[in-house]
Amino acid sequence: TSPDPAAAPTDRGAEGPLPQPIPRRGRAFPRTVYSSKDFKKPHVITSDSVHMHAPPEECVEDTCAAEMEHPPADDDDDDSLHLPAGQHLLFDVKNVSPSFLDSEKRLAQAMVDAIHVADLTLLSYHCHSLTPKGVSCVGVLLESHISFHTWPDEGVITLDLFTCGAKSLLPAVKSLAELFGVPAAPALGWDKPQIMWSHFLRGFRPAKELSKNPYSADMGRYLLSYLTLDMKEEVKSVVTDYQRIDVYDVINPRFNSLQAYERSLSSDGSYESLHPELYRPNRIVFLDGVMQSMSQGDSEYHEALVHPAMFTHGSPRRVAIIGGGEGATLREVLKHKGLEYVAMIEIDEKMVATSREYLPDWSDCSDLVGSEASCLDDPKAEVFYKDAMQWFVDRYSPECDCEAGDEHRHFCRCGDAAYYAALDKKKGQEKIAGDFDVIFMDALDPSDNKEFTDYLYNNDRFLEALFDSLTENGVIVLQLGESVAEDAAPDEVTGNSNRANIIKVLERYGFETFHIYDEEHCGFNWPWSFFLACKSASCDENFYKNEAQINIAVHQNIRRTKSKKPALKHFDGAIMSGYQLPSIHWEHLFCRNRGEDQTSCADMFPRDEDQVLMANVDIPTGFEKALGGKDVVRNEMATAAVKTKEAMDAKMVPFLGKWNPMISRKASHKYMTA
User: Which residues are paired to 518 by β-bridges?
Assistant: First the structure.
């Protein structure tokens, strides 16, 4: 220690010896060569260097006895320490005790304790007390380094921690908050310490490893790396046999504030305290690092997934849900009066248990008249903790028997390609008695970078079993992930190949009509797309009902609530009218997928309402009835369309009977009556 008595009071340089680094229990004592250079500078009161002593007495043969159970060796193996990759944690705190921030010894002790709790190895550290106030320290770790600087008068400390190896730094956030977030004296009138932190992956990793790292997915990109969030607290992190589940509470200062949230918890009569539901943190769920849903978009997402299909069918009585471990899809399905039975097939029982405890609002049916507190306990619901793929195959997909004439089944492949292509795609399907009116695939996003995703969306036997499990007028819905961008390349040549494949497969199996729609209020960074397919073209009559008709159906078919509040928070006739019109970006993507010039392709289905080709396809069955009579087809626009239809027939041939968002647009009453 080399105090400068002329620079500041002597007590800042006379706090006594600084704490020693603590050897890691159960680890070999590190053998290193220590060297340092100390530059004497003005405004420096003390300059202290401390490095780890030789092994203490309780360490035998350079290994210290373990005091507690340690993580598996592969979580911190020697090889990972030498990879050119690591993790970087930035940690900022304000409203911290000024006396703590000006004490070199107390700060050094906090650093030593934090490194020990994080199960890292502190080889040495170097600290300076500065004039007039403040402390700077840097510690050298076996894994890399830690450093911080303080501003006592402002009550601020900024710290960064970098480590190599596979060990996660996220558990260190809690200990850093406890050790460095020392509250200021009440006399100062400061709020409690406020913490901001961010976590980054650094360096270079093999592509295969990076693709499986949850910190490289949504959780890292859109949550952990943001330093300016008012709140970013881990609620629960669970690793199951199938996936990793992370739940976080978040307050983004763009939409809320920590101060407003804290006022909402008080009884001071403020607007926030009278309406606390508006100021709750946004609870976000990640599976293997991929964002699944959030409390501030839960209703919008799940209502968009469920209700268009339920009202398109008209009178669904039996429903199946694939996945849906959060319970929110089940919650929305149970809101329909005519429902008799719903099967939820979720492979991960721990996902359901975690959701019950940490996502209670997702499966809350306590306000529904005649239901239970948890939707998962509703008498109409049956939950199967099974592999959904195997569950459907076992029930609706008998083994192949080519000699018995089962060659109509697409997965059998009884003949060569030419023979298979010539078969009637619907022949024999009536042999399988479907049980479900609607099926929801609330499973993995088709674009998720997982091996199981590829298997799920490319398994012929499973997908055909879904078709066979539906009733004659059955409807299936699946979420397609982020909507397409204006300049998107064809799905077949991007990471969305699964999305392109499943649309083609569903068409091949005999679904008659298709609808694609986007929802922009799910809370994600981009609109979310959903795909609806009907076994019978008659479902168009319900899909294209006008706003008033949908609102009447909602009133007649949705169960009442005990609170007398509407059961649906987002979906209504106006929202459904928006779903009837496909995005123009989907139309452009359709053209690119066909390999045609975007402009010439779209010209066959122009959007300009002044052009006579506004309605150049046949009106779907029941469409006149859905719109309230023949007045619609008598208008001038439809008359012009009839005159041009013959000229368009040749161009239309490649499109008829196939999924085509532009045909859906032409069928939309919003354009027929423009």
Answer: 529
